[in-house]
Task: inverse folding
């Protein structure tokens, strides 16, 4: 007599939980290098700026092209911030899945957000350069 329920996916190559056994193996991964940690900290700092500038225009977050599945993934500001903090603390990215029915018009890429922030910065500092000239 078996005490545990029978696994209906036992031996199935499409078992949705097949990768869970590998999580213990992933625990042995090396932590982030100091350079990687610095990159993540810079991303967190940039994210705060992007959110402050873009949220008032109706942008809800960022879209990132997934390297694994080559699909766009839509992250709202808080979810992306949480993912970056998780990466800092664990050294591993979170398991992800695509957002449910996001409106792509409410998300921009990192590059767009960076360019927008640079444009705002340049506009704000434009007048200060003229004032310092003799």
Result:
């Amino acid at each position: 007599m078996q005490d545990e329920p029978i696994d209906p996916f036992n031996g199935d190559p499409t078992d949705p939980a097949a990768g869970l056994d590998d999580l213990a193996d992933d625990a042995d991964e090396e932590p982030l290098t100091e350079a990687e940690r610095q990159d993540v900290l810079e991303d967190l700092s940039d994210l705060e700026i992007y959110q402050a500038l873009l949220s008032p225009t109706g942008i809800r977050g960022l879209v990132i092209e997934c390297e694994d599945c080559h699909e766009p993934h839509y992250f709202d500001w808080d979810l992306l911030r949480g993912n970056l903090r998780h990466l800092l603390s664990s050294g591993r990215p979170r398991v992800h899945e695509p957002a449910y029915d996001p409106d792509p018009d409410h998300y921009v890429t990192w590059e767009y957000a960076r360019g927008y922030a640079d444009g705002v910065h340049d506009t704000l500092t434009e007048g200060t350069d003229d004032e310092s000239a003799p």
User: Anything to note?
Assistant: The first helix runs from residue 23 to 26.
